[in-house]
Amino acid sequence: MSLTFELTILGTGSATPTLRRNPSAQVLNVREKLYLIDCGEGTQIALRKNKIKFQSIECVFISHLHGDHYLGLQGLLSTFGLLGRQKELHIYSPPGLEKITQLQFELSGSKATYPIHFHELTMDVHENIVENDHLNITAFPLKHRVPTYGFLFKEKKKLRHINGRVTKELSIPHYAFDKLKKGEDFIHPESGELFSYKALTLPADPSFSYAYCSDTAYMQKLKSIIKGVDLLYHESTFLHKDVILARKTKHSTAQQAATLAKEAEVKKLLLGHYSSRYPSLKLLLEEAKSIFDNTILTDDGDVFSLSKSDI
Amino acid sequence: MSLTFELTILGTGSATPTLRRNPSAQVLNVREKLYLIDCGEGTQIALRKNKIKFQSIECVFISHLHGDHYLGLQGLLSTFGLLGRQKELHIYSPPGLEKITQLQFELSGSKATYPIHFHELTMDVHENIVENDHLNITAFPLKHRVPTYGFLFKEKKKLRHINGRVTKELSIPHYAFDKLKKGEDFIHPESGELFSYKALTLPADPSFSYAYCSDTAYMQKLKSIIKGVDLLYHESTFLHKDVILARKTKHSTAQQAATLAKEAEVKKLLLGHYSSRYPSLKLLLEEAKSIFDNTILTDDGDVFSLSKSDI
Predict the structure, then answer these.
(1) CATH number of B5-158+205-310, picked from 3.60.15.10, 3.40.190.10, 3.30.230.20, 3.30.450.20
(2) pTM higher than 0.80 for the full model?
(3) What is the pLDDT of residues A117-145, one digit of tens each?
(4) ipTM exceeding 0.95?
(5) Start-end ranges of CATH 3.60.15.10 in chain A?
(6) For this structure, is A133 an active site residue?
(7) Which residues of A touch B45 (CB under 8 A)?
(8) Residues A69, A38 contacting (CB under 8 angstroms)
(9) What is the distance between the terminal CA atoms of chain B, rounded to a whole angstrom?
């Protein structure tokens, strides 16, 4: 099975879309299940442009109800239906999105041909919202002008690999493999001999993690939630020279994003949600890099694929 | 003063936007006042791409509340605000749009910084909805799956031109010019002599008209409403071989659009709102041209500018 853990950035702009940047949207592919994170206007076109398989989207996470983070959703929901989708869809967002969606379906005299489950985020602490075989997804409140959530995608511990050479040599029966892979020792039922899983297996592949924090003012307390993640996307709407504006609008500066990345000891920081006021983003990158070197200035269409070799 | 009468096509696709075609949106420029007709997802980007001056949009006309005709509006309204708009905006649409817009503003914790006036279209006959110095705009019901309106933009009769050579020769006083331009004769207050406006003026420039009919099933009775317009945009979602589907979904075929154009004796027919099922639109054009020769297959970004020489 493919062990894909791949993030595609669909939009890196902020409030006003430009010819150069779409508003916020990303797709996280974890083992070919797709998770859409925010869905600004034009996201369905960005999905096509990036050749992403629409219909594999299982869950949509909307951070907050500012237009640049969700106005592409209604069109996408409608396109899902026109393309014959039957598979259910789960949508996680602060309260209100279901009402908007229902009103729009109603006025268009149509409804979704597939089940849509809305999950309202109202908690004020870090909480689990999705769990499946491979992944835990949690949400945590951010600090913005309207109720806003960040999301943390954390792969579960993976199974160890059977060391075929050794298990064959020792004639370990196949039925023992599942437990061994989970890291449990095996006692041979006939001989009573104990085999350590460590001797019969090779280490599991690494489990990856991704945190999405947009939009938000600087929040020092995110540090414990996103501690050590492989990838952190943190908005950096402004340069630190505009920190007063950032504070007023409850956004972050590149310096603040980098400070958090450093304090939380993340592996890599991805910047985005740039204000359109800066003709070049070079200064944003320099500002962040001076604090946290492994920083990337993301661009629409960027793909970040994690694999063993990244560890 | 510029006598511009120019239509820019921003989107020619139908329900599902593609990489090739935006959903419905157009801008009509009449003497530098801009009228936005429909506003599918991505319209604000299409406006930028076509270098149209956003803020000169005075009125928005939404034909109906299917997503491909209005989902770009909320983003545009928000961008107007972010760009500092203060000028009022008038929006004409079937009922419901105001509720959606208000809900979206409310949930985003914001409101428009400029006055927005919503005008609900509910009439079942052809009616005047806007009148200004240069233009009459009327709306008329179309036949679609939800309440839908077509729009007719008709320039008022223009003023005749003073024939400077003659007025100078006959020493006609300047204060007489306004009346002469309107086609009224002039009696000299001293001599009592009557001067015919025909002798002192040259004919007025032509007055142009444009009719927008999308989305709609074939409606023979539109003939009298759109009689003789210079430009008719009529949806042609399907080829006539798919007329059963057209009837079912209340759309038109290219043949039907052309039949109406011919019966209404319009000057030029613009086709659009193409189903994405046809790999090439050549057959749509051939089908229409076999009935009404002056037919154009519109494309995103096309501009139709009318001037004296078109008459």
Answers:
(1) 3.60.15.10
(2) yes
(3) 999 999 999 999 999 999 999 999 999 99
(4) no
(5) 5-158+205-310
(6) no
(7) 17, 19, 42
(8) yes
(9) 20
